[in-house]
Write a structure and sequence with these properties.
The protein is mostly helical. The chain is 66% helix and 0% strand.
């Protein structure tokens, strides 16, 4: 598999910030000021941090103390763990299937059921994780 595909799943905090990520982060800072979660000078300091931020993990420092602005650590860990389990499961089951086929026990690809099921769980976790980076509003008092 391509590293471009796997990086957001296995290393979500190491994904390089895009212009869309920076626009979303700026809008979240503006929202935090409007809602009273940050003072304008604090938001200005965080904008400076944002300008120097290189990856999504750096956003945790930018939004320290601002609720609902970045994905919770537990969600990030869950995404990484479930993705790792899914990839290992896919590879192991495929190797077993191919080995059985080589010895004359060719059967339909039974491994697809678990691979697709776990893949859906990975997809849901990824979608949830990404939603934190795409929203432009923060909640106060959550």
């Amino acid at each position: 598999m391509n590293t471009v595909l796997l990086d957001p799943l296995l290393l979500p905090d190491q994904v390089v910030l895009t212009d869309a990520d920076r626009r979303s982060a700026t809008a979240k800072l503006d929202s935090a000021v409007r809602r009273g979660a940050l003072t304008p000078p604090a938001a200005s300091d965080r904008l400076s941090l944002l300008a120097n931020a290189r990856n999504r993990g750096d956003l945790r420092q930018v939004f320290a103390g601002v609720a609902d602005a970045t994905p919770p650590r537990g969600l990030t860990v869950a995404l990484r763990a479930v993705t790792g389990v899914w990839l290992v499961t896919c590879v192991v089951q495929f190797v077993i299937w191919v080995t059985l086929a080589v010895f004359g026990h060719f059967d339909w690809p039974w491994w697809l059921w678990s691979d697709l099921g776990l893949g859906m769980v990975v997809g849901i976790l990824w979608w949830t994780h990404e939603s934190y980076h795409r929203k432009t509003d923060v909640q106060v008092g959550v």
